[in-house]
């Protein structure tokens, strides 16, 4: 992945054009230096235009909440990739700036909110009345499904005016270029059992504060119902 220092240096050189007041000789010298740096670092034009940001992933790649990550990618005109390493599992968002940064912010907000709302749900009477591990797991799954569907709707409604199928396709092409050995993972399908939990999850989405802006990744645990 290209370093920010190299990216800034190349982009600064690209700004040295005659249209910006530089002489033809200065512009040609800058263009030659750009070509040299790109060859030296093995860079493609899309490396300069596209960025990527990673967000920690809770749950499995096939979990109910994972359906949100593809929605976030659509809303921010990015492409999502699930990756695992010794440091844990992450979702990588790839696309034109500021898409990946916004996507990672939304991911953090939604993921934290889901975890916190599930904790709150488990303290309620409905969950506590479930007697077996199986029915308790099903209740949490239904609650999570309702919450995820509602958050999906919120995101699509909020970002629909800026969504662009062409830009997302470019992001997908760049994802395939950077990570050629990937495969599609489909979330596990399931049938709901407890309507009460499903509706409670949908209602819990009202507790989640989603905004367009990026407020800083460090403060994300204070957003979306976190304590």
Automatic annotation (TrEMBL):
Protein name, entry field: DUF2786 domain-containing protein
UniProt-listed Pfam families: DUF2786 (PF10979), DUF7168 (PF23771)
Ranges of residues in domain DUF7168: 52-187
Superkingdom of origin organism: Bacteria
Domain DUF2786: 6-44
InterPro entries in UniProt: DUF2786, DUF7168
């Amino acid at each position: 992945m290209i370093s920010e220092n190299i990216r800034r240096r190349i982009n600064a050189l690209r700004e040295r054009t005659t249209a910006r007041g530089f002489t033809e000789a200065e512009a040609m010298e800058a263009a030659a230096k750009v070509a040299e740096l790109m060859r030296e670092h093995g860079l493609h034009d899309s490396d300069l235009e596209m960025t990527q940001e990673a967000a920690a992933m809770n749950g499995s790649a096939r979990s109910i909440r994972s359906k949100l990550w593809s929605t976030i990618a659509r809303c921010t005109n990015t492409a999502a990739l699930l990756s695992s390493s010794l440091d844990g599992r992450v979702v990588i968002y790839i696309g034109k700036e500021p898409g990946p940064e916004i996507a990672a912010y939304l991911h953090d907000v939604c993921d934290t909110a889901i975890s916190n709302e599930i904790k709150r749900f488990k303290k309620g009477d409905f969950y506590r009345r479930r007697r077996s591990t199986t029915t308790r797991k099903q209740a949490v799954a239904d609650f999570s499904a309702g919450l995820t569907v509602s958050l999906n709707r919120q995101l699509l409604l909020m970002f629909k005016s800026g969504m662009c199928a062409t830009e997302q396709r470019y992001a997908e092409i760049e994802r395939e270029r950077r990570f050629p050995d990937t495969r599609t993972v489909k979330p596990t399908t399931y049938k709901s059992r407890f309507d009460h939990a499903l509706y409670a999850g949908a209602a819990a989405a009202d507790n989640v504060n989603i905004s367009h802006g990026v407020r800083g990744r460090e403060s994300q645990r204070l957003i979306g119902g976190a304590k």
